[in-house]
Amino acid sequence: MVLKKNQKRIIKEVVVGEHVISRENDGEIYVKVCNKISHPKYNTTAGVPVDYDFAILTLCKELTWTNNVAPVCLPHISDSASIYDGKEAIVAGWGYMMFEGSQKADTLKSITMKTMSNAECKKVMKDIMDKMKMDMIQMSPRQMCAINPYKDTCNGDSGGPLVVQKNGTQAYTLAGIASYGAPNCSTNLMGNPLPSALLG
Description:
By secondary structure, this protein is mainly beta. It has 1 helix and 9 strands, in the order βββββαββββ.
């Protein structure tokens, strides 16, 4: 969802522990949102990259960790963006299964993608845009890319996590957020790294 200038999206609650949307009372928990802080530099101006595409939600009560509700690690303030280049990453969401003629997923889906440097990403994206005879998608220095030759995120997956497993552990770091990609849900995902320190 892209908001117009000065337009605000009101978020009243979030759902945690959700897995199958159509199945009610199977462990999902609704939690009210007390505050929302959008990034002050969030940019939706036509013709430029959607930039700083994230917000912080403050919940009205603390969550209880369970098998279905658990925290994800955030990048350390000293991390540079390049430490996530060339890594296997997992992205998840309930978006459309295909670009046309399909419905959104009812069960949470995930795919494994390979992250890449921004320089490599621009080359891949240019090849895709040239084949589709479309203008090049602009990319912000604060964005990162991941690719899977056979699967991709699609409409409805925006806001979903892109996580990378921490070396030698069972923990995962939230390296990015699904934002946008090549038209037709073809082969690419672009996500915004969360903390500005990750940008190097």
